[in-house]
Amino acid sequence: MRHRISSKVFNVLIFLVCVHRWASSTEGLAANLDLSATYLSSITLGVVVWYATIFRRKDLTALLDKARVLQVPSKEKVINALLLINYIMLFLISIMFAGVLKDASAKKFAYGHDIKNIWEKILIISMDCSLTYMAYPLVSNIVAFLYCMLCLRCSSGINILTEKIKQCRPEDFGLSKQFSILKSKAVIYDILLNIQNVFSFPIFLMILSNVFMCNSIIKWYLYTLSGSFFWNFQAVFFSVNAFVSVAATLWAAGSVPMELNKFKEIFHQKTHLRLLRYNVKEEMYLKKDLFDEPDFVLSGCGILSFRRSTILFLIGTLLTYTFLLK
Fold this sequence. Notes:
This protein has helices spanning 2-23, 26-31, 33-54, 57-67, 75-100, 103-106, 118-167, 175-224, 229-278, 284-292, 310-324, and strands at residues 299-300, 304-305. The chain is elongated and about 85 Å long. Helix 3 crosses helix 7, helix 4 crosses helix 8 and helix 7 (118-167) packs antiparallel against helix 8 (175-224). The model has no long low-confidence stretch (mean pLDDT 82). It starts with a helix and ends with a helix. A two-stranded antiparallel ribbon has the order 1-2. The longest helix is centred in the middle third of the chain and has 50 residues, at 118-167. The protein has eleven helices and two strands. By secondary structure, the protein is mostly helical.
């Protein structure tokens, strides 16, 4: 019961944060519509990412239950550490921001009211920033973390099966062994289909949100050509966060088709060797079924394929769009 209440409170809270951020940025929207709208859109999309994910809560729960059978890869610890560092950095940035912000600039956090007491200023601004950072990038980072974790577990599971085939001697790689390995692979494939079903839309929005954030930061530098140390620090942090989040997601998702292709290649080599040595044509139907299977690539709404090469594509698109529409 408490979990449900806290979950609903959190969902309402990030929505109110999004509304508050738009309401408190009316002056910025009027001064620079393109820059402010892009920045606010990234925050809004970050919130939508969260809602799109919890909308599939039941499917997500079922997916996580299925994924428990998969081995936890060592890379997952690195992602856990990065997520923890991200939490700490966001907390520190919100406090730093409250400490260095001038009184004139601090007014917008209180809707134009003067904040005379220094501790009140720090409390209000740090809370405002913390809540904003919760809407973006925290919730989208959590979704990206979940996605990366599941993709890495699947690719690791496929890699383990590939290594089993490698280590198996041709004479031992009979019909029962092939069937056992393909059965294990089918379990992973089913999990991958569920990942695509649950995360296709949220991850697409997450990537879009981070691209918008990078775009707004680049435009900010192009328009202002200057800024305080803190603003520069914050811009660098959000740029790095956006890039790492997108790159890690595409890298993890891109490992899946690579491991599947590697699995098919090793399976083909082993069965081909058996065919040449023992002329076991009755085993070919399993191989045919495997190779008739369409290539699987995770994607965002069928619009953006999640391959490692997509990282370069997004960087090129971002820079082209930003400088052409300067």
